[in-house]
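Let us practice reading a record.
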Amino acid sequence: MGERAHAYDKDAILQDLVHILEGMIGDWETGFTGRIGPDTLLVSDLGLESIDVVGLVVALEEHYQRQDIPFVQLVMVDGRYVEDLSLRQIGEFLHQHLNA
């Protein structure tokens, strides 16, 4: 296996996620008072709705300049939408697909 042009570190991906989400929800009244981190949930903690998750996906595609990340595998399981996702789950998914 050869060297990758750019390998993505799990911690760097998580930092990217936090930065993007902070930019998205910076002026929303979410009621979330903690710091956004690996165990933060998109729906339960941050109050994101499905359209917001789509916005996050678009922001991630733009950030990483990749349109080939199969986000449907992340948000749907057995034909049903996943009810909530943690930043850790998203980060691990991105790590796997960005480094594939």
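A brief commentary: The first strand starts at residue 76 and ends at 77.
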